[in-house]
Design brief:
It contains 9 helices and 12 strands. The protein has 2 domains: 105 residues, 2-Layer Sandwich (Nucleotidyltransferase, domain 5), CATH 3.30.420.40; 150 residues, ATPase, nucleotide binding domain (Nucleotidyltransferase, domain 5), CATH 3.30.420.40. The strands form 3 sheets. It has a 5-stranded mixed β-sheet with strand order 3-2-1-4-7. The longest helix is centred in the C-terminal third of the chain and has 20 residues. The protein is an alpha/beta fold. α3 crosses α9 and α6 packs across α7. The protein binds adenosine-5'-diphosphate and zinc ion. Adenosine-5'-diphosphate binds next to α5.
C-alpha cells in the first residue's frame, strides 16, 4: 500500500511515494512549465506505482479553489502563471487515478507535515509560514485547516515599515505588505543580491527580523496558536530565528504571555521534507475519510 504526494510549486513539482509509515520511498522533481508538459510527467511517475497506490495528497501553488461545493473545486484559479490559470488540476489527476485525493495549498501541506510529525506534533493549534519566493501561510486547529470562503492569505498582511527601511515593496498587488517587504525577491531587490549571499552580520537582517516578528505578533493576537513555525528559503539564515525572538519580545511589550519563546517561534523540524510528508499524511487522511 502506497501513498502519493504532489507538491506543486511555482518553480518545480516534487512527486513522491511513501509507505504506510509515511516514509518517503521515492521522490522526483520536474520544472513547472505548462500543464501540457508537466502533468504527463506527474502521471507517468505515479503510473509506475498504480497497483499499490491508494490515495494521493496534493499541495498546490495558488490561489486554488478549495470549496468542495464549487463548480471549480480542484482548480488553480487566478495565478499569475498564465498557463495554469483556471486549470482543473484535481480533475486531471482524478481522470488518471480513481482513488481518494486530498487537495490543499502547498503551504497548508507543509503546515500539516509539521503538525503531524514536526514541531506542531501533539499541539492542537499550529500556524506555519514559508518565507521564500512569496510568503505563504497555513493555520491548523485540531487537525483542520482554518478556511472560510477560501484559504487565508496571511502572507499579504500589512506591516509597519521599519524606520531605517525605505524600500517601496515588491508585491505587485500591495507594494509593502509582508510578502512585498520580506520574501526572497524583496530581499534581493533591496540589497542587490540574493539572501543567501548576504552575510550574517549585515544590518539588513535586523530589518528582515522586524517584519517577521510583526507577522508573529499579528499571528499571536489573531490565533493565539501553540506554536508559530517559520520555514522557506529565507529562514535558512540560522541566526534569523533569534533575531525574530528579540524583535517579537520588544514589539509585544509583555501584552500577551505566550509559551516560552524558544518553543513558540521556531523553524520546521522536518526542514525541506515538511511538504512531502504533509502530502503523504493528507493522503492517508483522505483514504480514512473516503
Ligand atoms: P519557494 O518559495 O520557491 O518554494 P524557497 O523557499 O527555497 O522556494 O525560497 C526561495 C527564496 O529564498 C529565494 O528568493 C532565495 O533567494 C531565498 N533563499 C534561499 N536560500 C536562502 C538563504 N540561505 N538565505 C537567504 N535567502 C535564501
Ligand atoms: Zn501583497
Amino acid at each position: 500500500m502506497l501513498y502519493g504526494s504532489i507538491e506543486a510549486g511555482g518553480t518545480k513539482f516534487v512527486c513522491a511515494v511513501g509507505n504506510e509509515k509515511l516514509e518517503i520511498l521515492e521522490r522526483v522533481s520536474f520544472p513547472t512549465t505548462t500543464p501540457e508538459e508537466t502533468m504527463p510527467q506527474v502521471i507517468a511517475f505515479f503510473n509506475q506505482y498504480k497497483d499499490d497506490l491508494v490515495a494521493i495528497g496534493v499541495g498546490s501553488f495558488g490561489p486554488i479553489d478549495i470549496r468542495k461545493t464549487s463548480d471549480t473545486y480542484g482548480y488553480i484559479t487566478s495565478t499569475p502563471k498564465l498557463a495554469w490559470q483556471n486549470y482543473n488540476f484535481l480533475g486531471a489527476m482524478k481522470a488518471a487515478f480513481d482513488i481518494p485525493m486530498a487537495w490543499t495549498t502547498d503551504v497548508n501541506a507543509a503546515a500539516y507535515g509539521e503538525y503531524a510529525f514536526g514541531n506542531g506534533q501533539g499541539k492542537s493549534s499550529v500556524v506555519y509560514y514559508t518565507i521564500g519566493t512569496g510568503v505563504g501561510a497555513g493555520a491548523l486547529q485540531d487537525g483542520k485547516f482554518i478556511e472560510g470562503f477560501s484559504h487565508p492569505e496571511m502572507g499579504h498582511m500589512l506591516v509597519v515599515p521599519h524606520k531605517d527601511d525605505h524600500f517601496e515593496g515588491a508585491c505587485p498587488f500591495h507594494g509593502n505588505c509582508l510578502e512585498g517587504m520580506a520574501a526572497g525577491p524583496a530581499v534581493e531587490k533591496r540589497n542587490g543580491r540574493k539572501g543567501q549571499d548576504i552575510p550574517q552580520d549585515d544590518p539588513f537582517w535586523e530589518i528582515e527580523a522586524e517584519y517577521i516578528a510583526q507577522c508573529a505578533y499579528n499571528t499571536t493576537l489573531m490565533f493565539s496558536p501553540e506554536v508559530i513555525i517559520f520555514g522557506g528559503g529565507v529562514m535558512k539564515q540560522r541566526h534569523m530565528v533569534e533575531k525574530v525572538h528579540a524583535a517579537f519580545t520588544r514589539i509585544m511589550q509583555g501584552y500577551v504571555a505566550t509559551p516560552a519563546i524558544e518553543e513558540y517561534i521556531v523553524t520546521p523540524a522536518l526542514e525541506d521534507n515538511a511538504g512531502t510528508i504533509g502530502c503523504l499524511a493528507l493522503a492517508e487522511k483522505a483514504l480514512k475519510e473516503a
